[in-house]
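Ticket #4471: structure output looks truncated?

Reporter: J.K.
Steps to reproduce: submitted the chain below (169 residues) through the standard prediction queue, then opened the result file.
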Amino acid sequence: MLIRKSAEDDFLPMLGIINAAAQAYRGVIPADCWHEPYMPAAKLASEIADGVAFWVAEQHCELVGVMGIQDKADVALVRHAYIAPASQRGGVGTALLRHVQGLTDRPILIGTWADAAWAIDFYRRNGFTLTTAATTNRLLRTYWSIPQRQIETSVVLTDQRWVDKSARA
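Returned output as attached by the reporter:
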């Protein structure tokens, strides 16, 4: 498996992976938060313009996963982590996560839907800690630009650097 920074030619395959993998959210997240497609092309372009650096996993000359990382103030946010459905549970997500973790020395925060148990379990298996409701609310308001409804239905997980930093504060 090759992990590399996304290129301009990766835009449509990345969009395809994101929208195919996001089908898992249908019927899980609140209906008023679901839309089709889950991520329109304009939204992905906006995320790139806003500083989300995307990394892709490639196997046999085909993209199989995508994960973004974005510096925000004193932290790094993992954004839009999706694995092609046929490649899930094969180590692609873990490889991408380890790669983006190695790109920064900042504490890493990950936001996801509260009812996406599989995503929460994945991050917990990879060493991330679920924050309390009060901390989640504060972090989402501080580091993300998302609607109130998404704040109400999301959780935040943090890496050990965040836990250590918080303990010192």
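Triage note (M.O.): checked the attachment and the full token line is present. The chain has a mean pLDDT of 96.
Status: closed, working as intended.
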